[in-house]
Design brief:
Shape: globular
Distance between the termini: 15 Å
Largest sheet: none
Radius of gyration: 18 Å
Order of helices and strands: HHHHHHHHHHH
Number of helices: 11
Helix content: 55-70%
Oligomer: single chain
Number of domains: 2
Length: 224
């Protein structure tokens, strides 16, 4: 899909802002920027972006504290997500990938940073969340309960992790498999949205999760 490179340079130079904006405000969130560079009408839900990816990007965008940080992290993804719109089947597979990443990648990273290696490994060893795979409800319930019990110090859900779960939630009412997994994993949404950096270890872990989430977006776009 064609991307207007001059418009892309323009939005990156201004920086990405939080929230929704009017076309005359000279501000844009990451999704409004995607609509603008794709030549679509001004919107934070452009037709050219998969709604599952779009929901993750909107929540991720609005949770990041500053323009500089937001633009550095999400700006390079604008050209990646434009043209990602696809079929309902692809959306369901992408939703499953988001849930899988949140539970079997991001959460173990946080647990490991807190010194809970065994709980992290248990989560990583769970069967992948896949649309066509058998649903291991008991395994997930038991393992997530164990992980939750280890989260006293490092229990706040990272921003990227919460955004991924929000993206998956788009398809909860569209697919029985996603709904079934959500019934087990969705309980972890009670954990706070932000992962506050109270020390070097926490900040390094948040940065590592963000880097993994950027890679996740690229993998989601590659699903067809």
């Amino acid at each position: 899909m064609h991307i207007d490179q001059e418009r892309l340079k323009e939005v990156l130079a201004r920086g990405l802002d939080h929230g929704e904006h009017g076309i005359d405000e000279e501000k844009a969130c990451v999704m409004e920027a995607a609509a603008y560079v794709a030549g679509e009408p001004w919107s934070d839900a452009p037709q050219c972006v998969c709604p599952v990816i779009g929901e993750m990007m909107r929540e991720w965008n609005d949770g990041i504290g500053g323009v500089v940080e937001r633009t550095a992290l999400l700006g390079p993804l604008i050209s990646v997500i434009v043209g990602s719109a696809s079929t309902p089947d692809v959306q369901v597979r992408r939703a499953a990938m988001l849930m899988d990443w949140a539970i079997r990648v991001s959460l173990p990273m946080r647990l490991r940073a807190a010194g809970h290696e065994s709980a992290a490994r248990e989560l990583e060893a769970l069967p992948p969340i896949e649309v066509d795979a058998p649903f291991a409800a008991e395994d997930y319930s038991r393992t997530l309960a164990h992980a939750d019990s280890k989260n006293e110090r490092y229990g706040e859900r990272s921003l990227a992790e919460q955004a991924a779960m929000s993206g998956a939630n788009v398809m909860v009412h569209e697919d029985d498999t996603i709904a079934a997994f959500w019934g087990v994993t969705g309980d972890t949404n009670r954990i706070a949205l932000h992962c506050h950096c109270d020390g070097d270890d926490e900040c390094k872990t948040t940065a590592a999760i963000d880097a993994s989430a950027v890679d996740l977006i690229k993998r989601l776009v590659s699903v067809s």
